[in-house]
Each structure stands twice: as structure tokens, then as C-alpha cells.
Amino acid sequence: MSDAALPPSAEFAGGTHARRTLVRAEGAAFWDDQGRRLVDLGATHGAGSLGAANPEVAAAVAEQARTLLYLGSGYENPVRTRFLEKLLALLPPSFGRVFLSNSGTEAVEAGIKIARGATGRPKVVAAMRGFHGRTLGALSATWRRELREPFEPLVPEFYHVPFNDVAALEAAVDASTALVLLEPVQGEGGVHVATGEYLRAARAVSDRSGALLAFDEVQTGVARTGRMFAFERWGVVPDVLLLAKSLAGGVPIGATVTTPEVEARFRGTHHSTFGGNPLACAAGIAALDFTVREKLAERAERLGSLARQKLATLPPERLREVRGLGLLIGIELREKSAPYLAALERRGFLAISAGATVIRLIPPLVISDEDWSAGLDAVAEVVADGAR
Ligand SMILES: Cc1ncc(COP(=O)(O)O)c(C=O)c1O
């Protein structure tokens, strides 16, 4: 390996390549180690909804670190209690229990265990193109073959059905199904939005069969899609809601939200040393307060519809479709997206893909109108110019 090909640090990269070195953030912008400003259209993968250095979250973390940095979950703590109260106050009253962890994949793992432990059944039905994380249980629910195959055999009794296909879902769910696990908008899988009919059918078939219904809102949750939680748009309430990413303003957290009835049926145990630690909960309080006060769901809705209007005028020769809700937008091209991402980066905008041919725009919800407008102009330009 030549020096140029060496990774910049000793990190086990796990097949992903680090790109530019970023050292500082403010609002929706980063600065790299050369002092160049770059606007985030996706660099934080949805975890940076409040920006990657939100001052209110940073102040809450600093204050909490000086007061009580860590406490095991075997003890009550007012910060954790307050965070859980705030989170539950934003949700329908059927919810009342939250298991806290440290990431999206852990939130999913807890959801799978809760479903199996509450129903005594093995089967999990998930959707093709779905993404739920990379630990072995969550990976078993994830669709993409190249993510799964190197690690097989995975957990048994996981099945995948075509997304938005009511008949296929109804045929797959039966008396041995513990969990129906769906994303209201499939993020990693290319930004595909569920239909209301599909989610209502998922609710009905879960009720009929005695399975639990979980919505994985790790990517869509906390104001991203123009609602505080995406499921609000359709009024279909799941039994289990999975959250992570921006829930604590960029500090690692995962939350598996469920009902007291499900908890009462749960057999077994589940635990996490760092889950619900005071630092993450203090960040979570600051993040939820900020999200509500700054009306970020409305902002996501407004900036999202502006984008869809602008992107609707892109030339159809290179563009297959624009999809999404709020500030989770997929631009499906007729060719690979990687050169387009590189062209955007040359213009000072960091975006990511969602599959080989989709540019995913998932900017901080605090992005200024000017940066968003300039970002959309840059997208229009690179699409019109064929990634030059
Ligand atoms: C819908 C969904 N579920 C789960 C995960 C896994 O989250 P994490 O990377 O925090 O483990 C992701 C990550 O992108 C996601 O988009």
C-alpha cells in the first residue's frame, strides 16, 4: 500500500472510507482542516439535525459533566426522569415506557427482544430495501445482501416482504409473528415513502395476528420529515417506536419506546451499562427543548416543499425521480450518484447517497434559508452539468 492509500488514523474503517478531515462546526456548516467552509447537506447522516455543535446542547453537556457524568441505570436520576417525561409528552398517550441505549442499532435490538420477549414468538417481518442497523439482530432485519452475506448465518426467523405491498405483508404475518418492523420512510434504502394504506394495513394485520408493530424512526424521527414523528402524518400509532440519531442533538443515544401493556407481557431481561446516562439525557432535554421551541418540524416541512418545487424543474434526461418528506429527500438519477456527490463537494456542499443512484439530502434542520437555497442551486447545477 502506498502512503497515499493509508487511512489517516488507526481506525478500523469497516469498509467505509473517510473523506475530508472536518474539525469544527457552526450552524449547518463545517470547517475542514484547511479552513474551508462546507455546508452540510447530509454529512451528519441525520444525527446533526440541530447542527453538529449546537450551543445549547453543548452547554447542557458541559454543565451535566461537571455535576454527574455517569450513573448506572440501577439508580434513579432526575435528569433521566425529566428526559423521559419530555419525550413521552411529545408522543401519543398509549406510550409510557422507554428503554434507553446508545445508538440506532441498539434501539432496534431492544425492539426485537421486547417483541420476542412479550409475545413468546420468533418471527420478524421486515421490508425489502429496509435498513435497521448492523449488529446481528438489526442486520437480520436489514435487506441489502452485501451488508448481510459476509456475516451469515444471521438470526433465524427474519423475513422480508416488498415495501408498500399490502397483500405480501398480509400473507407473511401469521400466528408465529412477534414483530412487524417498518420504516415510515426508508432512508438508507433510497428514500421511499410508505403509503398510508400500507401503514394502516400493517397496523391491522399486526392486531389480527397478535404481533407487535414497530416503526423504525431512527432516521425519520424528531422533526426530520415535517412532523415530530413521521407516523403522525398517517395517524397510525405503533406498539414500539425506535429512535436515535438526533434525539440527543448529536450525543449518542437510542430509545425504544413502547407501552406499559407490552412491558407487562415481557419475559426476560435487557440492559445497557451506558443506556440512559445523565450526559445523554441532559443533551436529550436540551435537544427536545430546542426542537420544539424553534419549531423545527414546521421548518423541515417548509424547506422540504421549497426543495421539491425547485427540484421538480431538473432536466429529466439525468433524473428518474425526486422523493421524500420534509428534509429527507432522495434524488434518483439515471446513473451512479458518486460523481455528483464529488461535484457537490467541489462546490462546498457535503451530501451522501442512499444506494448507488440516489443523492440523499438530509441537512441539519437549522440550515439557514440562504445555505439551503445555495445547496439546491448547486444540486440543480451538478445535475444539469452531468456531475462536472
Ligand atoms: C432507519 C435506521 N435504523 C437504524 C439505523 C442504525 O443506527 P446506528 O447507525 O445509530 O446504529 C439507521 C442508521 O442509519 C437507520 O437509518
Provide tags for this entry:
single chain; 388 residues; alpha/beta; seven-stranded mixed beta sheet; 12 helices; 17 strands; globular; binds pyridoxal-5'-phosphate
Write a short abstract of this structure:
The protein has helices at residues 55-67, 78-89, 104-119, 136-141, 145-148, 166-172, 196-209, 260-265, 278-293, 296-311, 338-346, 369-384, and strands at residues 22-26, 29-32, 37-40, 97-101, 123-127, 158-161, 177-182, 185-186, 192-193, 212-216, 240-243, 254-258, 319-325, 328-333, 349-350, 352-353, 358-361. The protein has 388 residues and is α/β, with parallel strands linked by helices. The two termini are 30 Å apart.
Topology:
Layout: E1 22-26, E2 29-32, E3 37-40, H1 55-67, H2 78-89, E4 97-101, H3 104-119, E5 123-127, H4 136-141, H5 145-148, E6 158-161, H6 166-172, E7 177-182, E8 185-186, E9 192-193, H7 196-209, E10 212-216, E11 240-243, E12 254-258, H8 260-265, H9 278-293, H10 296-311, E13 319-325, E14 328-333, H11 338-346, E15 349-350, E16 352-353, E17 358-361, H12 369-384
Parallel strand pairs: 3-15, 5-6, 5-7, 7-10, 10-11
Antiparallel strand pairs: 1-2, 2-3, 4-12, 8-9, 11-12, 13-14, 14-17, 16-17
Helix pairs in contact: 1-9, 2-9, 10-12
Pyridoxal-5'-phosphate binds at residues 45, 103-105, 108, 131-133, 183, 187-188, 216, 218-219, 244.
